[in-house]
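#onboarding

Welcome to the new folks! Below is a worked example of what a typical request in this channel looks like: someone posts a single protein sequence, and someone else replies with the predicted structure as tokens. Don't worry about understanding the tokens yet, we'll cover that in week two.

Example request:
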Amino acid sequence: MIGPTKLCPEGIGLVLLDLDDTVVADGTKISLRVVDAINLARERGCMVAVASGRSWSMVPELLRKPESMDYLICANGAAVYDTIGGTLLEHTMSSEQVLRLMDALKPLHAGWYAFIGDKAYFEWRSFSYMLVGRAPSINSIRAAGSTSAGGPVKALGSLHTGMGRFVRRVARTTRRIATNVEGREQVRSVRKYVEAADEGVLKVGCSLPTSAACDRALEVIGHIGGFEAVRMGSHELEITAAGVTKGISARWLMDYLKIDPACAVAFGDSKNDETLRDACGVFVAMDNSQEYIKGLADDVCESVYDDGVARWLERAMAEADGAEHV
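Example response:
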């Protein structure tokens, strides 16, 4: 256990880590400094778990190994695994339930993906931040311009650089998924895989062509009932069975490990991390988070591009060791 610290007076026994734009940058990159900080926290007796919207197969291989991680909460809480090969918990939707949903949203021209077991199937027409990361937000560029010596000129340069990086990510990812990377397959339609999912479906997601279509899809889902839908940006929805969230499964894991929620710290950046706030004693938002998420957080750390998770854990461990300035 780490601590006690000012933010965590009971100490830190469990660290929960979102992946995209929290630990993983640009869809694929994990800082060695973050990995080292995770390892150091574990050496001090702290349990560390992924808490991601990704499927098990889409979690970077490094973080699926028991040498690097203790547990994995995947598919927005629909499954919990340990890193020695065990499935501890699953909450699935029936194939019939998912097919009804797909039929109901067909007029909105949704592009789908589905997580079935440890596999992830993405339609060619679907787009997901989990594959390529997020495009830089205009608000973040404006904020950078207002606080930097370069002002608006630097902001425009940052926008150009950020968008260029984003486009390159899309191109790289398209090449990767075209080769059907293990556990993640690009398909024309996910419907046949859902139809054959006798064991049920952990999670589905859909991309809509417009923000208005996304609004309408949320209305339809609410009318049907039986689903937990999270809006990720203006065009994408993540959908699990009703009541299935990262926060619910995080609490289940705490009960399983007999860890007081007051001793749990979670890191996240977006809407599907919101339920971790109520599940844990401390919720830390990334500096690159949506402003809404920052407003909910107990603390804000540096961005994913500045090793925010590592820096926060390093400060916590230094404070626990009695350092006066951390």
